[in-house]
Amino acid sequence: MTRTAPTTRIGADVDERAGVAFPDPYHWLEGDGPEVQRWQDEQGEAAAAWVRDWPHFDRLRESVSRFQTARFEPLPRAAGGRWFRTTVPEGRTQASVVVADEPAGEGRVLFDPVQEDPARPPFVSWISPSPDGRVLAVGVCTDGSEQNTVRLVDVTTGAALPGAPTQTLMDNWTSGAHWLPDSSGFFFAGIDGRAVDLSQRVWLHRNGTTTQVDVPWLPGSDYRMVVVSRDGRYAVAVQRMMDPVPVAVARLDDDPAALVWRPFLTDVGGSVAGHLLGDAWVAVTDVGAPRGRLVRIPLDAPSDWEEVVAESDAVLRSVTPVGDALYLAEFVDTYARVRIVDPAGRELGEVPLPGRGALVELPFPMMNLGAARPSDEFLFAFSTLTSSAGTYRHRQSAPDLEVLTEPAVAIEDAVVEDGWATSADGTRVPYHLVRRTDVPLDRPQPAMIYAYGGFNAPWVPSFPGVMAAFVAAGGVFVHGHLRGGAEFGREWWEGGRLANKQNGYADLYAIAEAVIADGVTAPDRLAVTGGSNGGLMAGVAATQRPDLWAAAIPRVPLLDVIGACRDGYGNWVVRLEFGDPDDPAEVRRMAGFSPYHLVEDGVAYPPVFLDSGDTDPRCPPWHARKFAARLQAATAGPAPVLLRIWRNVGHGWATDKEIALTENTEWLAFAMKVLGMRP
């Protein structure tokens, strides 16, 4: 194998943070001028040529096409006696919006992105029908960045309605439009300025007019949204994406445009994520219960918390009101369980899940709070490590699940095996192995570890999507659970964030060493990958422990932890999860897991493939550019360091299906070529 990327010029820039100076020789790659674009294009051409030189590329693409499924499939939404959902028609690359009489009914198309732009159909970020079912609000993203603007559609005629708000939404993380009970308007969160500044405002759009909602928010940058209680009496302002709290409440009896807000929970150090039921906030909290408990907090007495369901050995993740019952989603040794209780906390039963796997939930607590709205029936999606998601409906009056849509694809003749590794500090860390039953473990096999470990996001044992093609080709897929996630509650998150961030990387190395010691694989047959924070993880793994890996694939990564602090979004991410960028000691500690700063000249690094999008505001492409350039210049030996930046692609949520197919085939082809595999 030879490196084919071009040589990159070196600058004399220095990056300084809290008085600590770092050489920044590739600072110029943070720009987007003609020189950077030419360099990026040359890098992409070299990367594409390298993976397409593998004779099995086209066969792998066919396999990836079969297994490529959405990780977070939105559920149908009920309103006005009808059901609204997104679906990708045969032969299309983006989803349309359909209205039907049943959740999975055939229905008719309400919004077709091809009609907006036949050459490059936009992405439907979110949908939200009005309570009376007469108007559909749709978030539309045109450049892959996830930033979207609102369209309003007349449900009866399918015609576009005038007067939609003009503000840009950051993404779909706050669930788009939250309608008033009389269907006269909705709240939504929009950005003020650039997406990378993370300056969010909440707006009320009503009767064709959009006004800013003035709420006594907590200080600092973070996500925020206003939701409406099911009975329509209250609006609730919620803040903090990773550990949300209801900061203020207002009655909707009077004019919604002149709401009087009163503070609710403004001094809470943990998560209090739930729903307003009657005159109380019913929520899952980790305050006083790291694994979660269910509490009821009266609106007129926010200090009087009543415990409804106590903490247990299971991890209580979320609550969904369904009729007069509460459905509690839990983790038991990482796998999903759903219990049903009455408003007093008495057990009513358990949902008979269709296997041992995971609910298809959004990764961060506020996202699920916005998406899991009270209903009269429990709709959910569920997948396993070997089968893609199906959608199901549960009613308390019926003993069995109703299957709405069957899983689209499964890995044939596959087996899942659970394992535990012991991390450097003695913590037991779980992982799962997925392999074909005819792949023996009496000798080292090609394997790939996929993990995340951050931001209170559970890395649930769900279908691995395109990595199923890796398993189908005879590889062993290793799904890891690192500290920093939420699989074991608040302490699992705290154990891998801020001053403890290195613990998550130690957990990764422990899993790698365990599967090597067990003879499952060997360092020359083991790859590591992850996206976003998992992309950082893969970059850290390649630079801290290059001896462990045959290949590393950081995808949509953040790789310059120090430089990330220069924009609002990066600064928020760093302060939330990594450390205090104003403290010199903290800056030096963070440099110890910042891959761009870890690279040393003359080290034999493993083959690396970097995959990023040019419209990504969360992990901008300059992270991947700078790290690629630094690694290409420093690494000893012939191992390739390849970079692929995709145009009109962001963090991955809004990528065109056809572009995603090529993108996923390329990075997976890189791994399989290095590991000596074939589809």
UniProtKB/TrEMBL annotation:
Q: Does the keyword Protease apply?
A: yes
**Protein name as it appears in the record:** prolyl oligopeptidase
One Pfam family this sequence matches: Peptidase_S9
Q: Which UniProt keywords apply?
A: Hydrolase, Protease, Serine protease
The organism's taxonomy opens as: Bacteria, Bacillati, Actinomycetota, Actinomycetes, Pseudonocardiales
Q: Name one GO biological process term.
A: proteolysis
Give the residues annotated as coiled coil: none
Task: Indicate the segments forming the Peptidase S9 prolyl oligopeptidase catalytic domain, all copies.
Answer: 463-677
State the top-level EC class.
hydrolase
Q: Which InterPro entries match?
A: AB_hydrolase_fold, Pept_S9A_N, Peptidase_S9_cat, Peptidase_S9A, Prolyl_oligopep/macrocyclase
GO molecular-function terms, A-Z: oligopeptidase activity; serine-type endopeptidase activity
Is Nucleus set as a keyword in this record?
A: no
Write the Enzyme Commission number(s) for this entry: 3.4.21.26
One Gene Ontology cellular component term attached to this UniProt record is: cytosol
Reaction(s) the record says it catalyses: Hydrolysis of Pro-|-Xaa >> Ala-|-Xaa in oligopeptides
Query: What residues does the Peptidase S9A N-terminal domain cover?
Result: 7-361
